[in-house]
Amino acid sequence: MKNLLEVRDLWVEGGPPGGNYIPIVKGVNFSVKKGEVLALIGESGSGKSTISLSTLGYARPGCRISKGEVLLNGEDVMLLDAQSRRELRGTRVAYVAQSAAASFNPSLRINKQVIEALTIRSLMQENEAIEHVVDLYHRLELPNPQTIGKRYPHQVSGGQLQRLMAAMALSCSPDLLVLDEPTTALDVTTQIEVLKAFKDIIARENTAAIYVTHDLAVVAQVADQIVVLNNGEVVEQGQTDQVINNPKHEYTQTLMSAVRQTPSTAPINEENQGVEGQHLLEVKKISAAYGPHTVLNDVSVIVDKMETVGVIGESGCGKSTLAKVISGIMPPSSGDIILAGSVLDGTYKKRIRENLKKIQYVFQMADVALNPRHTIGTILNRPLKFYHDMTQTQRKQRVEELLELVELPREFADRFPDELSGGQKQRVNLARALAAEPDVILCDEVTSALDTVVAASIIKLLESLQKRLGISYIFISHDLSTVAAFADRIVVLYAGRIVEQGPTSRVLSPPFHPYTKLLLSSVPELRQGWLEDITATEEARSGIAKDVSVSSVGCPFLDRCPMSIKGVCSTQIPPIQMPTGGHEIACHRTIAELN
Amino acid sequence: MITENTTAAHNVQYKKKKLNNLRLTPVAWMSIVIILFWITVALFAPALAPFDKAEMVSFESFKLVEEASFLGTDYLGRDVLSRIIYGARMTLGLALIATLISFTTGIVLGFAAAISSGWIDQILSRIVDAIMAFPSIMLALIIIGGVGTSLPVVILTVALIDATRVFRLSRALALDASVMDYVTVARVRGEGVNWIMLHEILPNTITPLAAEFGVRYTFAILFISSLSFLGLGIQPPGADWGVMVKENLQGLLYGSPAALIPAACIGSMSVAVNLLVDWFLHRSSTTIPEELVG
Amino acid sequence: MSGLIVHRLALGIFTMWVVSLLVFASTEILPGDVAESILGKEAPDEQIAKMRERLGLNNPAYIRYWNWLSGLFVGDLGVSLGSGREISELINDRLWNTVRLAAVTSIIAVPLAVTLGLVSAMRAGTVMDRSISIGTLCMMSLPEFFVATLLVFVFAVQLRWLPAIPIVRPDQSLLSSLTAIALPVMTLTFGVLAHMARMTRNAVINVLSSAYIEMALLKGVPNWRIILFHAFPNALSPIINVIALNLAYLVAGVVIVETAFGYPGLARLMVEAVGTRDIPLVQACGMIFCATYVLLNLFADIFSILSNPRLRTQK
Fold first, then answer.
1. Alpha-carbon separation of residue A254 from A248, A281, A453, B1, C299 (angstroms)
2. Contact status, residue B142 vs residue C30, Cβ threshold 8 Å
3. Under a CB-based contact definition with an 8 Å cutoff, are residues B34 and B22 in contact?
4. What pLDDT does B16 receive?
């Protein structure tokens, strides 16, 4: 069968216009057949977006195609004139962007934009077009398909907007669909439904697709073929099954092992569990609110020495707020933070320097956590000067030691943050936290903005530092697999309440609480067919597309729970049950029922 | 071992290219030349001027290009060239003083308002809003008309009007910077407000503030000259470019360009500063897709 | 949305009130006794005292303020101390002149500026764009009196096409009145055109760099449609803002031009009033100018709210 798309020896250069261009992609070859889905995997900056955009004959400012051919049905797209290029866009090749929120014009109603590709070419009249896309909405399982298109983009949720963008792309029934990280910005549970919708409709319409992503597990669900990019070159390509289960290239192997993480099987110290007494850090019945909105409700967590406590939950569950309360950025409305036996003040302004030193905070976005006008050396020097009594020479040496600790070369002390990559910046963040010689480090989604491989290396670094220096971590994340592999204990947050907490192995296998079950099942596994299995289950069906709402009465998980008890769960706060020491579950159902 | 060195190397290459962007365009060069020219003239005025600014060189008014006088005489028979040279001092010097005053007040108050963001911020912002609700010329009119046309009053009035704009800008910049995580890091460390303002916020606001200095300076020059033109600024026989325009307006009807020369000088200086600021701010390229351009 | 608009209106009214306080207070600092200015310094003390009594100058400040403020509401702007005429009469003539000047300038400048800005933005980075940019920057940087005097020199003195001093009479023919204000209009256009063109360019460029514009491109939408239907609706708000700002300037800030051309407008009236310490006139003029500023800004604000769907609708 002839290839729908053939990319031959493609070279891409990047650089500021007027400046010098350097090659980002060096000679890439691949092809896609009709109805086939090809996944393009690579780190950010690897040029995969540019490659995918070239199929539309488009290059972003700052990038250009310097060599090669992109053949769509035998015709080189790069050689077409402007008019022909415009004609093929939307009709033969269509694009689904990463951020639906940014790709929809905020001033125009949704329908108008979705049918635009049809109406400007007079392929259909407006009414016909609207009927056609409403049908697409139906098939994408969007709520209220008749009316959702009449709204403005800001009135619709992220996951729904992403599917609407898919409808927009599919409106002209293109031969090739280009999906550029379409689910990266979504929650785990939202991701499932969007993935399923995409997969179904692609199969239905027999559209070919290029799926650009860095998320391997997602790839396993949708792709027939995988192309792995590293350093601008294709290091491996082949059928999904082979690449995932039998990777040949070293890079691919590293990638696979970075994704496949096994839950921590650390031995549980039975004695320490649930024991009253000196813990390193105790979060005691903390409640916090932004004005009238309660964000945290009666949260209690314990952290001991050399322990990693993972806090997990979806966006909006309050996990970041918890970190803010612990560090004193946001004062709680009730409850205490107790550090080594003494109660800390609600706000950092009133805490003594000794205590501020002991709890350090590392942020998610490394870019804005480092002052772009300071050198790395200056950044690391300051906490040393501020917290410790050291001479200048001592500090200089310590800076070098710190850089070494986080596996960065010591020349970096003279560099500025914008000369570093994302992973390197995060290491500097860590080094800064370590400079204070803390007891506890709050890691707030520190790996969420990083690529898989880079994130894995940061986790490894954290683990080795813990062993060497005896630090404890509170590791906050929405990524269950990372937390599962790294944390000794897990705290599961939903809508500001703890629904389950305990040693990792006990919490995850077997999962008791319905929400924990839902979370676990939402994590895409690196095997084909997982998506079909999971969406067939009850958990997924009920977990779909609801907003997280904080309630003060009854169980917060009520409207997504497949096991709710009528009359009870809506009125009474779930009691805390403890199947074993240190393992708490907040649910009305008995342990036996949950098992 | 898989490192992230590729991306880092990439970044370093970019940095080198960024420095190359500091190339000066011909327009920027021209602006710098003009500015330096006038600065020199202003600084060395007594040495450069052929005559004293008040000296009558001829009994003929509005004589074009006399033997003794290069640019001709003004309405009183004074040498235009000398008055221009001394005028540079007056106009450019006063504008500079006013801008310096407005900047120090504006920045300090603007930062304070951003950091405190409590009732201090509210009060300061409301006052600034109220002052800005007046058309600038009218405000100056009332103040100067009421208090008098002495130099300090003129300078302070201009400084007040300018300070409101500087306040708004520095407040906005400081607010933007203060929500950055690196400021939160400093706060949680226990750093004091002053340290944060000086070390974390200020370095990140220097570029836009420097550009604004240029803009405000130009405004001060134009405003002071305009006030002089209206008779509210520098009084004759002081040599100020604005006054010179006013004095010699009649000459236009006789075909004498004596009024145009000082006006052109003002224009040249303000055009040069504005062009330089524009170059400074817009060295980066556009982010519009190529297909939409041209 | 209506909540936002009501909030803006309330803020506007509040600002107006503060402004009225400031206007009143600032006239208090004008030295010189009003009664003295009318009767002359040599007048006997009793006469002055009686005049002060008559003018109500001996009342405490807040009473005078209240009288003045309540007068404003019924359209009674007081009596000019200089001429003895009703201020509302005086202002009426001048106001129409000013409005006429502002209107003609706007009709010419606004469409020209927006087009220039649009063209600039659509050709961003090209030589044309750079030249327009430099050109407008120069236009903006030149002092008004320079432009005014230059134009007078060229058109009135050398070429003798247009009158240097506009003669404005209420009974003029349209052509005659237009030629009269041609030079002032040209001078004003110079400044405001440049400013509006630059702001339009920036606003449109900002919008054109957005992701949704790229998306439209990737759907194959032709450029003209993108500019008209995708870019413009989003750029409208900042553009309207700039236009409002410049309109306010055309009413209140044109002292230089009015002085340079001897144009009988409102700004010159105020200058004269300050000169003669004609307090009621100063206050009235001040209020009108500030009211114009505040109202135009309010209008621009409300327009922004209405044109932004995110503010217009509920989530």
1. 11, 36, 7, 9, 60
2. yes
3. no
4. 43
Of C217, C225, C313, the CB nearest to A120: C225
Average pLDDT, chain A: 84
CB contact under 8 A, B189 and A383: yes
Report the residue of chain B nearest C225, measured CA to CA.
B292
What is the Cα–Cα distance from A301 to A323, expressed in whole angstroms?
12
CA A128: distance to chain centroid? 38
pLDDT score of B7: 40
**Residue B137 touches chain C, beta carbons under 8 Å:** yes
Residues with Cβ < 8 Å from A469, sequence gap 6 or more? A434
Q: CA-to-CA distance for A88 and A66, rounded, in angstroms?
A: 22
Number of Cβ within 10 Å of residue C54's Cβ equals 9
Instruction: Please report the pLDDT score of residue B9 as a whole number.
Output: 39
State residue A573 phi and psi, 5-degree precision: -70, 130
Question: Looking at the complex, does the CB of residue B22 fall below 8 Å from at least one CB of chain A?
Answer: no
In the sheet with A334-339, reading across from the earlier edge strand, the strands are A293-303, A281-290, A334-339, A342-344
Q: Which helix (H) or strand (E) holds A234?
A: strand A233-239
The proportion of chain B whose per-residue pLDDT surpasses 90, expressed as a percent, equals 17
> Which is more confident, B77 or B88?
B88
B260 near C CB under 8 A? yes
Q: Which of A63-67, B106-110, B144-148, B204-208 has the lowest mean pLDDT?
A: B144-148
Residues of chain B contacting C19 with CB distance shorter than 8 Å:
130, 133-134
Contact B135 C289 (CB under 8 A): yes
How does pLDDT run across A98-153, given as a tens digit for each residue? Answer: 888 889 999 899 999 999 988 888 888 888 899 999 998 988 888 889 999 899 99
Distance of CA A174 to CAs A88, A117, A138, A513, Å? Answer: 9, 11, 19, 44
Instruction: Assign B162 a pLDDT band (cuts: 50, 70, 90).
Output: very high
Query: How many residues would you count in chain A?
Result: 595
Answer yes or no: do C212 and A117 touch at CB < 8 A. no
User: Interface partners of A (3+ CB pairs, < 8 Å)?
Assistant: B, C
The single residue listed with the structure tokens 């027939």 is A224
Asked casually if ipTM beats, i.e. exceeds, 0.85, the reply is no
Cβ C22–B134 below 8 Å, yes or no?
Answer: yes
Question: Quick check: A374 and B285 CB within 8 A?
Answer: no
Collapsed DSSP state (helix, strand, coil) of residue B230: coil
pLDDT of residue A524: 74
Mean pLDDT of A382-410: 90
- How many cross-chain Cβ pairs, A to B, lie less than 8 Å apart? 99
Chain A residues with CB under 8 Å of C212 CB are: 102-106
Q: What DSSP element (H or E) covers A493? A: strand A489-494
**C165-186 tens-digit pLDDT:** 766 666 667 777 777 788 889 8
Enumerate residues 6+ apart whose C-beta is below 8 A from A176.
A4, A5, A32, A55, A72, A92, A93, A94, A207, A208, A209, A210
Instruction: Give the separation between CA A196 and CA A222, rounded to whole angstroms.
Output: 9
Residues of chain B with Cβ-Cβ distance to C290 below 8 Å are 133-135
Yes or no: say if A67 and A247 are a contact pair by the CB < 8 Å rule. Answer: no
